Automatic annotation (TrEMBL):
Source domain of life: Bacteria
Annotated source species: Alkalicoccobacillus murimartini
Domain ASCH: 25-143
Protein name: Uncharacterized protein YhfF
InterPro entries in the record: ASCH_domain, DUF984, PUA-like_sf
Amino acid sequence: MNEAAWNYWLEYWGEEQPPDSVSAGQFGDEPDYLAGLVINGTKTATCYGYQLYEIEKVQIPTVGDYSIILNKKDEPVAITQITKVEIKPLNEVDEAFAIAEGDGSYENWYTIHKRYFTEKLREVGMQYKEDMLLVCQTIKLIDSHA
């Protein structure tokens, strides 16, 4: 976590002791756009490849975890908290979750995620599969700089 994100986290909690379970990062390959969708309430879910968590040696998120959302300049713009986590194959994600991701329709969500995960998996020498496991998270906005 960078210094700006850490300062935002501490500022948000003020005199209270902040929870330990916090991470910071950007959303996907359009971090400013996706952060904006979180802030305006359109994006209330996100997902990432289960295998990618393992490869990147990052702990799989759990209910109650917080995230500091960063823009493309790695500046903190919002804080979210995870309210639900499910691990499921990409081809079993339902339309309600896809729409909660902010992509407008299931078809659009599928196209975007197939492209994104094909590229991410290629970077680590793996191939995209329609039944790849996703860590699907429902999130709520806690605070924003907007």
